[in-house]
Design a protein that fits this description.
The structure is a homodimer. By secondary structure, the first copy, chain A, is mainly alpha-helical. Helices cover 73% and strands 9% of the residues of chain A. Chain A binds a DNA duplex through helix 4 and strand 2.
Chain lengths: 159, 159
DNA sequence: ATTATTTTGTTGACGAGGAAACAAAATAAT
DNA sequence: ATTATTTTGTTTCCTCGTCAACAAAATAAT
């Protein structure tokens, strides 16, 4: 296995591990809330005028899934929807008071995770940080270009 | 947002993107096979005496899910199960001839992905590779220790 | 201005995966 | 040797997310 594969698979494995662990911790602290719900709350709390489409793009999920998820959160009284006078189509979301509480608990948990992993990052030099960030940036742009190609290809199938 | 968060979220985003893109490509080339099925085939092709439990641990999935997945693959004639004379409990899997074909197609696709992303890695120096690998390694061990703590905690609840 | 296309969100049928209860074999404890 | 515990795999029920069909609003094309 060459180093490229090692890096990719290493990160894949690391990521699966982290998702699994944090999800466990999360559903332990925020009993009654699924991690997907919490992610949704996090996004709505952090962004301005989030709608179904923006949430879906951010999570790489379908609009349908987000539509159902937000409906459920509304039913639970965690978020509420609103519209703008100039647009009768788009529907935005904001946190309710109860939602803000969940949001805060999540933030604390987030800090806990950072605290937990502090030791790992303490060993990382500024240069290493920058090198990793530039790697991520480059790779991400590269994939964006590939995704763009893909969507062009798919469109051309129907021409 | 500090650099720790940037790194984590950057990789998370990069990863979601890559998974989404590769999954699309995969299900395009290997029509009729889901990406989870292909992952399963990949693992069975690469490891010796894989069983339900090993597959589940590797994919961070439940035994139940793998049990169903393998049953389906057997039905499709892609894998077959076998046992060892000294153990009547564990059930192992191997690829059938048809399964080997899928495996090979997957390998080629894998090479295609590497080829596609070659340009990104070409810019990475040996030192950067090693630094990222050691970061992954350190972090992964750290999380293993945390996961271990978690399972100890859960056990102590019932004592 | 009218029509065509695109964007945005919703719904229902379906499949994938998790949780829990279970059975059978293997291992540990006595 | 017998009993208790653990490991391994399966099945049933349920939730979550996808897909496809759809409706309504917004935008583009004519």
């Amino acid at each position: 296995m060459n180093k490229e594969e090692q890096v990719i698979m290493g990160f894949r494995d690391l990521f699966n591990k982290m998702v699994w662990l944090n999800k466990s911790k999360m559903e332990d602290s925020l009993k009654g809330y699924k991690s997907s719900e919490v992610h949704c709350i996090e996004y709505i709390g952090r962004n301005v005028d989030p709608n179904v489409t923006k949430l879906a793009e951010s999570f790489y999920m379908t609009n349908g899934a987000i539509s159902k998820l937000t409906k459920k959160l509304i039913k639970k009284g965690i978020i509420e929807s609103y519209q703008k006078p100039e647009n009768k189509k788009e529907i935005y979301f904001r946190l309710t008071e109860q939602g803000k509480i969940i949001y805060e608990i999540h933030e604390e948990l987030h800090n806990e995770f950072q605290e937990r992993d502090k030791a790992v990052f303490a060993q990382v030099t500024e240069e290493q940080f920058d090198s990793m960030l530039s790697f991520v940036e480059t790779y991400s742009r590269h994939l964006d270009a590939e995704i763009k190609k893909l969507s062009v290809d798919n469109k051309s199938e129907f021409e």
